[in-house]
Amino acid sequence: MNRWLSADHINRLAADPVRCTRSELAVKVDSRHPFVPEDYTQLYFTPVYATLGFEHRLRYNQLFGLRINEYIMMLEADLVERLLTPLLRQPRIIADAALGQAMLTMIEEEKRHCANFAALNRACRPDLYPPGEDRFFSRLPIWTKAMFWSVGALAGRLPFALWFLMAMEESSMALARDMNRRPETETLGRLDPGFVAVHREHMKDESRHLHIDAHMIAACIGTGGQTRRALNARLFQFMLGGVTHLTRSGSGAMVVRQLVREMPELAPREEEMIQALLALKHSKPFQESLFNRRIMPKAFSVFDGTPELGRLGEKMVGYDRR
């Protein structure tokens, strides 16, 4: 059973610079190194991956690392403020001044995280991220923009996206921990220290944010009636489809297309790689890599204690209810 920090304790930690993510990091990146563990990329889970040459796998790893950073930024820039701002007007949040302050601090910290990851991507590939352009792989399609708009519009009554936010924040922490624990990749050599340093800094704030997430879930979902909790659960499970179902126009395919643009000798294999990605819809190892108890123990414990999420495993393959 998780013991969540009190909002007052969270605020005291947030006031200690040593426990907070630094901003304006001076980042140096070496393009000879991979950026993320290989099993955090999509092609890794396909038969195609092992048939690619070293330089192809290295470039793919680096491009996918940039894509991961963008998706952390998307979560924190496009979802957090849109979700949390309406919740600040909820009676149970208004009544808890310390929690409200923690949420406001969280919003500001997420803005700094976005700036750090944007700077990291620009340091890695200034050609893909010229000044003023922070998105390359995560330019949102209309349906995703509509989903995020809906999250904000419904947050006051149906804050289902809090469960998603908690899972994704804990996932980003797992990535940072795995970078520290496994600095040597399976086939590509040692991870780039500069890339790892930014993710390690990010983990400082996220460790507090998980506790804020838990308090918000308890205050804004857990106190609702059974019908409303059930509707929140259904909307959350619908939202998961955007993560678990890869499409031809999705960011994973965009990474493959950029790889081919940069290494045109792979052009004859582009469709093969795209088809391999699409087949991951039916890959249990891949689906379990997205959501599992090892990387999301706190989020999973919250799911375990939510009766309305009893059938979550039907949509989240890696969820083993306890």
Question: What do you see in this structure?
Answer:
- The model has no long low-confidence stretch (mean pLDDT 92).
- This protein has one domain (29-308): Orthogonal Bundle (Ribonucleotide Reductase, subunit A), CATH 1.10.620.
- It is globular.
- It has helices at residues 7-14, 54-87, 91-94, 97-124, 142-154, 161-181, 193-220, 226-239, 241-244, 251-262, 270-278, 284-290, 297-304.
- Helix 4 (97-124) runs antiparallel to helix 7 (193-220) and helix 10 (251-262) packs antiparallel against helix 11.
- Helices cover 59% and strands 0% of the residues.
- The N and C termini lie close together (12 Å).
- The protein is mainly alpha-helical.
Which short descriptors sum up this protein?
13 helices; 322 residues; 0% strand; mainly alpha
Indicate the topology.
Blueprint lengths: L6 H8 L39 H34 L3 H4 L2 H28 L17 H13 L6 H21 L11 H28 L5 H14 L1 H4 L6 H12 L7 H9 L5 H7 L6 H8 L18
Helix pairs in contact: 1-4, 1-7, 2-4, 2-5, 2-6, 2-10, 4-7, 6-7, 6-13, 10-11
Which shape, going by the Cα principal axes? globular
In total, the number of domains comes to 1
Find the CATH superfamily. Answer: Ribonucleotide Reductase, subunit A
Q: Could you state the order of secondary-structure elements as H and E?
A: HHHHHHHHHHHHH
Radius of gyration: 20 Å
Low-confidence stretches: none
User: What is the number of helices?
Assistant: 13
Beta-strand content: under 5%
CATH fold assignment: Ribonucleotide Reductase, subunit A
Q: Largest beta sheet, briefly?
A: none
Give the integer mean of the pLDDT values: 92
Helix content: 55-70%
**CATH C-level:** Mainly Alpha
Secondary structure: number of strands? 0
Which class do the helix and strand fractions yield? mainly alpha
N-to-C terminal Cα separation, in Å?
Answer: 12 Å
Can you name the CATH architecture? Orthogonal Bundle
